[in-house]
Design a protein that fits this description.
The structure is a homodimer of 483-residue chains. Chain A is mostly helical and 483 residues long. Chain A is built from 19 helices and two strands. The mean pLDDT of chain A is 92. Bound molecules: potassium ion (K) (2 copies). Chains A, B: GO terms for molecular function: metal ion binding; potassium:chloride symporter activity.
Chain lengths: 483, 483
């Protein structure tokens, strides 16, 4: 690994984080909050900026990156952002234990949205805004990672998206990444801004809440400014707006880019989008009737809660309007299954990604057909294009590794949680970057009851899941560190 | 499918079942049990014999089997045995509902050992012996299926065992299967007989219990004659004998054959055996210290219970000496993970099979290495021999299908069980042919509380798991039924 170049770029990312923290002090000032809040943000920002400047200066020089350096940049970038981003929580006294503060920050930057805080109404706005901003920055990072970087690094079969990336196609990798990033960030910022306006002028939220919730939605993050999450607004309009934007955030952003470029038909040509939309519709209908049958209110109310929750879970946002942990077991288990699926590739959503699940599903059908006629030649296709055996093999391995980490993680978490349901769902909720799980980490609960060591382990799962496992896992291979 | 030939062979299997039921009436007579018990067995046997004779006569003729017919024979063979084998329970009034009786019988023939009966001490010995015999016959069927048939049908990567099968190697398939079957059954009968003698003369059981428990052990079945299972004997010697024979029953029977032919070193040359032995030892040690730490008794007692339980679960036998459902969550979850692994290929054990898990594990390591160096050529080896990519792909598909069935099955079972733990473990306990799960289907519980429809669904999972999924699943493909 080219440590100098890697840390130079990490320093650059840390600088942005530092400036943003100082800007949050401005928000706090505007709301006339106590000076201590503003100082905690300014000090944190200053520390980040100074460290970033120092490291950036010491590592200055030409930047020539190899494929391997890519892993170092994303992993250490996220870790550095988390370390510096945790400072405002600690300095302001909002979160006492440093590991808990790191948990909250990693939860922000990985757009997980799992929280250790309970009384959110008591948290200063400056801190809230910083917390929401960690989501929004995290979402920006994820977009570049998933659409522009991972397909080239070839993480778990994501090679299939190499040709799909918007932007100039014949350039060298680095300028191409920059161009693609700008296009995607444009789409991301536009959608966020539209949602802010809708929440403010149609949903009736104030500007502050509109921004915080729009950041949480488009990043599929899930941090709210209210303890009761989106349910606190008790508004069908707010629920609908957020449901729609969560749905959009769970779609491949390349498709949004093409739609904005006048090619909206590309949504329906995309097999992953079709699977996502159909599966989500079926799950919503099932849950609607399941909870309606269990007397959770009128059919329209059940549909509203079901659509919101199913969308929130499949996109791995984690906003809540209903305590789905109280729903019948069939709905609860379906939600857990949905957690494994996650959003579309190239969205800000987490989980295993719809396209992988879809290809695994096709692989199973193909396997049974092949078993029936061993001599048959069956080519697997995705959206009319053949999928290489190699890619399918990568995806199968990704699936197995994901399941292994889930199993080992659940086993480890039995030592930190009261029961198996909590242990298993705390792992998938963090590994899949969802946020809430079931039982003691359910929709109305939080992660404060888990000991700092347990929180630290879950923090690692958030990073592992967000960086699609391999990017982090290969740092544990000794050969990675060899020159 | 050549229906005539398939049903001719199924009739032949049913005939054997019928004769065995009549023989059990003799056991009942010897113990001077009420005439009604003997009549229930004689009537059941007579019905099976008459039906088998009739179908056998109507379908007489040349037997020319295609690959596809193999699936029909095993699936319909198991189903027919279950239908006729359930009659004694119904006629004797031991089990009232016909679906429950089918559940108990399928549980016997698939060597699952899940039971709907609670007061086992009140059950007549004639019925007990029949129940134990369903295990023993099931085990014989499994041995032929797994060692001689599945490798040729190519179920989920089992092609790797084609060359491993004992017996003449250059013959045509049918006589080779017959020869292999006789060799394996010889080993199976010998081990069963040795266990009977040990249980009788060293363990101090009576002849009847010795036979029933030896049948249950060698078939990795798990039906006991006591409500408290093997725990009822409260004997360290009995526990040790059964632990050792469960361990043997979970090993590939080809290895036993080679050992008896004077090649015991082949055990240690077999990578699957090594993985099985090492993994089981580690799990036993972990559970020992975990339950000892939670004050479950002296270290030696904890070791005895842990070794028995871990062996019982990994071999998918399901005998119990301790209520492992009361153990700490870490041990409980580890046991559930072990349920997925199951016994070695070519043993009477169920689950996904050790070799598949081992190869998936190697695939994951290979994937990470490939990810590190995309241009590297990494050949996967098993016991020094290269494993084809095609086989690995089959195993990955098997793993995914197993997981999908587990997820869908757990979802369905939420409608029949009180909580998610019960729903999920009832599925893995039947799909993996283990028997007991956790919670409401735990070690001291049974399946009587599940409604007949739920029991029917679990009966299907037992068959699905026992016949390695595909054999049953392809019957649902319309193309299977075409000429
Ligand atoms: K989230
Ligand atoms: K069993």
């Amino acid at each position: 690994m080219n440590k100098r170049a890697v840390f130079h770029l990490v320093a650059y990312m840390t600088l942005v984080i530092g400036i943003a923290m100082v800007a949050c002090a401005g928000i706090s000032l505007a709301y006339r909050e106590p000076l201590s809040v503003q100082l905690s943000l300014v000090y944190s920002g200053a520390i980040a900026i100074v460290c970033a400047g120092l490291v950036g200066f010491l590592t200055r020089g030409d930047i020539n990156l190899s494929r391997r350096d890519g892993f170092g940049i994303v992993t250490f970038g996220w870790i550095s952002a988390t370390i510096f981003g945790a400072l405002p929580y600690i300095f302001s006294g909002v979160i006492a234990h440093p590991v808990s503060a790191m948990f909250e920050t990693m939860s922000g930057f990985t757009t997980t949205g799992a929280s250790v805080m309970s009384d959110l109404e008591a948290i200063p706005r400056g801190i809230h805004f910083w917390r929401a901003l960690t989501h929004w920055f995290g979402g920006m990072g994820v977009l570049v990672l998933c659409v522009a970087i991972l397909p080239f690094l070839g993480v778990g079969g994501m090679q299939i998206y190499r040709a799909e990336m918007p932007g100039p196609s014949k350039d060298r990798l680095t300028p191409r990444i920059a161009t693609t990033a700008k296009l995607l960030w444009g789409v991301y910022a536009l959608l966020t801004f539209v949602e802010v306006l809708l929440l403010k002028f149609v949903g009736g939220m104030d500007w502050f809440d509109s921004f915080c919730h729009a950041f949480g939605t488009m990043a599929t993050g899930g941090f709210s400014t209210r303890s009761a999450s989106v349910g606190a607004y008790d508004s069908a309009i707010v629920d609908t707006i957020i449901t729609v934007f969560m749905f959009l955030a769970g779609i491949n952003f390349s498709l949004h880019y093409y739609a904005l470029s006048g090619k909206p038909h590309r949504y329906f040509q995309d097999p992953e989008f079709r699977f996502y939309a159909i599966f989500l519709s079926c799950a919503t209908l099932f849950i609607t009737f399941n909870i309606w049958h269990a007397d959770w209110g009128s059919l329209s109310r059940c549909f509203r809660d079901s659509a919101f929750t199913a969308t929130s879970v499949i996109t791995t946002t984690g906003f809540c309007t209903a305590d789905f942990d109280q729903w019948p077991n069939a709905s609860r288990l379906l939600l857990v299954v949905i957690m494994f699926i996650g959003g579309c590739a190239g969205s800000t959503g987490g989980g295993m990604k719809v396209v992988r699940v879809f290809i695994m599903f096709k692989k199973m059908v193909r396997e049974l057909k092949l078993f029936m006629r061993p001599s048959a030649v069956i080519q697997m296709k995705l959206g009319g294009k053949p999928v290489e055996q190699e890619i399918i093999s990568h995806i199968a391995a990704f699936f197995a590794i994901f399941m292994l980490i889930f199993a080992v993680g659940s086993f480890v978490m039995t030592f930190f949680t009261p029961n198996l349901e909590t242990a298993a769902t705390s792992v998938i909720a963090t590994l899949g970057n969802i946020g809430p799980g079931l039982n003691a980490v359910g929709a109305t609960q939080n992660y404060a009851a888990i000991s700092p060591l347990g929180q630290g382990i879950l923090t690692f799962f958030m990073l592992l899941g967000r960086l699609e496992l391999y990017t982090v896992l290969i740092l544990f291979l000794p050969s990675f560190w060899k020159k």
